[in-house]
Amino acid sequence: MFSQTVEYSLRAVAHLAKVAPAVVSVREMASAIRVPEAYLAKVLQHLADSNIVVTRRGKGGGAALARRTSDVTLLEVVQAVDPIHRIKTCPMGLSSHGSKLCPLHRHLDTALAAMIDAFGKTTLFQIMNDPDPVKPLCEVESPGMVQLGMPCAPGSRQPEAKGS
């Protein structure tokens, strides 16, 4: 339902939230969240344009969250890279419908409105601090499993990069 760009942007901000306030290089982040480096650089630029992340060029450069996790909603992240648009008029352009939506498009618009509402009420802080033992970007550990990379919550670990 969501574009790959939305998925990648949500992974990026979750990773930055996990390591905040650190500045993370694009290469490091791309490996950690399993996103192509060039694609991630473009995603981060959109997020920077929307004041969700700050980026620095050069040695010691990378990206960091621009605001506290409690001040960033999932809706802001989604809208920065691939906006959700409500259905205001008939997508087929049927003049007989005017601005009144048929039952199909009215139900779709209702679902979009609910999604916008839910994402607008959900902050990055809430996602990263959810009591669920399964955490964003982390594998759930099983007995005898060794944790690699950035520390995750107890009982979970960050997944290994592909090809490792």
Features:
41% helix, mainly alpha, 2 domains, 4 strands, Arc Repressor Mutant, subunit A, two-stranded antiparallel sheet, two-stranded antiparallel ribbon, 6 helices, 164 residues, disordered C terminus
Strand-helix topology:
Elements lengths: L3 H16 L6 H8 L3 H13 L3 E4 L5 E4 L8 H8 L21 H18 L3 H5 L10 E2 L15 E2 L7
Antiparallel strand pairs: 1-2, 3-4
Helix pairs in contact: 1-2, 1-3, 1-4
Low-confidence stretches: 144-150, 154-164
> If helices are DSSP runs of H or I spanning 4 or more residues, what is the number of helices?
6
Rg over CA atoms, rounded to whole Å, is 19 Å
**Number of individual domains:** 2
Number of strands: 4
Say what the CATH topology of the largest domain is.
Arc Repressor Mutant, subunit A
Range of strand content: 5-15%
What is the mean pLDDT?
85
Structural class: mainly alpha
Main sheet makeup: 2 strands, antiparallel
- Helix amount, in percent? 40-55%
- Which CATH class of the largest domain applies here? Mainly Alpha
Q: Architecture of the largest domain, CATH level 2?
A: Orthogonal Bundle
Overall body shape: elongated
How far apart, in Å, are the first and last alpha carbons?
A: 30 Å
**H/E element sequence:** HHHEEHHHEE
- The CATH H-level homologous superfamily of the largest domain: Winged helix-like DNA-binding domain superfamily/Winged helix DNA-binding domain
Q: List the strand order in the largest sheet.
A: 1-2
